[in-house]
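2.7 Reproducibility. Because tokenized structures are sensitive to small changes in the input, we list the exact sequence used for Class III cytochrome C family protein, including any N-terminal residues retained from the expression construct. No trimming or masking was applied before prediction.
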Amino acid sequence: MKSIAPYWLNNILGKLLRISAILSIVLCCYSMAIAFEAPKAILMMELTKKPVAFDHVPHAELECVQCHHMVEGRQSFQMCSACHQAKDKKAENSYYKVIHNKKTANPEMSTCITCHKEIAGKDKKKRKALTGCKKSKCHE
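Resulting structure tokens (single pass, no recycling of outputs):
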């Protein structure tokens, strides 16, 4: 179908449409980045025998949903201890399980240990530093 508008007008409209689409994408990405900015402060995870000082900065390349799972159909950015308060290691909402379980019910999620094991791979030094109970980077 041939346009009835002059060529120069079609050219300008086409460019404006492309520019507005690019700007929309950039603004959308920018607003999402601002909305989900991780805390800069170190969070103390104190419901374990040996407290953990959790820093979001080294975890910044991860997707938030790998740790912060959906609650009642919505993304939750609360600390683990907001819901997982049981100190009994075997309890359903055990704080210990959230951190130390070697498997998760949801394959899209990770516990600290599952992720750290994957990162360490077969490197024994990294494995001890990231998954060890004594003298690890977590329980200093």
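The chain has four helices and four strands.
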